[in-house]
Amino acid sequence: MATARREMTFLLAEPERRLLRLIAARIPPALRPNHLTALGVLAATGVGIAYALTNHGSAWLFVASALLVVQWFGDSLDGTLARVRHTERPRYGYYLDHIVDAYSVTVIGLGLGLSPYVDLGVALGAVVLYHAFKLAYGRIGPTEVRVILILANTGLALHRGGPWLPAPAVLANWGLGLITAGMLALLVARFAHNLATLRKMEPRPRPTNSLIVSRSE
Fold this sequence. Notes:
By secondary structure, the chain is mainly alpha-helical. It is built from eight helices and no strands. Helix 2 packs parallel to helix 4 and helix 4 packs antiparallel against helix 5. It is flat and about 70 Å long. The N terminus is likely disordered.
């Protein structure tokens, strides 16, 4: 198996990298990368639960936002801490990171779908497209999604209604639906572009003379 390397091409990658290295240099020695990974998993689970609990009150949206920050801390800092301490395990870390990311996105999306704001089908559709979008487009990553979610949580929690404002569930469903449609459109565009590029790099082979003769026989 080749050594895997995580390429950081997301919009906030560079300032995030500098901040993470600054924090990692100040982490106590007793705290290891696996501890941070476990913290990220627990926080992601908490985010999903907090979203589901918004059925009992919109204040849980603030809890979900706070846990998203904790989840960022654990999920983003574990690899940086290993690199700063020169204890990284590239293959192990790459595999674990992708499994944890898949779990975190899924449990948060499921929590959104169980909330009164987003239909379950819309939420799970966004989860599936996010995984494909992250691989194919590479500019919107976990940190950017957390920022969007925290802003959306704040807007929904502070929503006070009015004759000119749609209901929170309408806003959330339409907002997530438009984001999902945008991801799908970008995926289709990237797919078409990549297919055209590959077609130029590997044009369809022409049949050889011997093949033509054998067919005629």
